[in-house]
Amino acid sequence: MRILKRISDSEDSNSVLYLALLCLLYLLITSSYIPIPYHPEASVDNSQPVYIEISKEGVSTVEIYNKTTELNKLKVKYNLDTDLKSGDRIIIDNQEISLGRISGRKRISLGVPIGVNSASLEDLTAISGIGWELATRIIDYRNNHGRIYSTEELDSIEGIGKKKLAAIKKVTNLD
């Protein structure tokens, strides 16, 4: 009896193994698994999409880039020396090409953060709860104290409390 029981236990464990292998095989076949070779130049290397506005002859379009290679091709196409970052604007006027920034209102609507270190007065007023006076105070603070290294620094500006600071943090970065 013992010999029969050992054979039976051995067959049961083999059956479980075969069943597991069949399930794995079924999963691979039905999931349309096709191994894709790795090409580093084609990989997405930006955690966030990069929004670039291209203005040509009065017509502007905002394009989204997810790969550095696409941004590099754009740099070469327009013969730009600087790296492109989200919120940049390429202006083409009579074959002259210049680089600017997307307006603050458009950046906020696209989900592109406004850089507190580089924002203009108009960009800052695009942020909900910041008017001309407060935007002027932010720029004065930036001019008097230098680069802002943490959005927490804005708390020391008159008119910015904890609630307003929380709202500002949602739509800004330290650019």
Describe the structure.
This protein is α/β, with parallel strands linked by helices and 175 residues long. It folds into three domains: 1-34; 43-101, no CATH class; 111-173, Photosystem II 12 kDa extrinsic protein (DNA polymerase, domain 1), CATH 1.10.150.320. 43% of the residues lie in helices and 17% in strands. Strand 1 and strand 2 form a beta hairpin.
SSE map:
Blueprint: H1 2-30, E1 50-56, E2 59-65, H2 68-77, E3 88-93, E4 96-101, H3 104-110, E5 114-115, H4 121-125, H5 132-145, H6 162-171, E6 172-173
Parallel strand pairs: 1-3, 5-6
Antiparallel strand pairs: 1-2, 3-4
Q: Radius of gyration, rounded?
A: 28 Å
The averaged pLDDT comes out at: 83
Report the uncertain regions. Answer: 36-44
Counting DSSP H or I runs of 4 or more residues, the number of helices is 6
What is the fold-level CATH name, i.e. the topology of the largest domain? DNA polymerase, domain 1
Strand content: 15-25%
CATH C-level of the largest domain: Mainly Alpha
Q: Kindly state the number of beta strands.
A: 6
CATH homologous superfamily assignment of the largest domain = Photosystem II 12 kDa extrinsic protein
Number of domains: 3
CATH architecture grouping of the largest domain = Orthogonal Bundle
The helical percent reads 40-55%
Element order: H for helix, E for strand: HEEHEEHEHHHE
Oligomer: single chain
Biggest sheet, in brief?
A: 4 strands, mixed
Quickly give the structural class.
alpha/beta
Distance between the termini: 79 Å
Give the spatial strand order of the biggest sheet. 2-1-3-4
Give the overall form.
flat
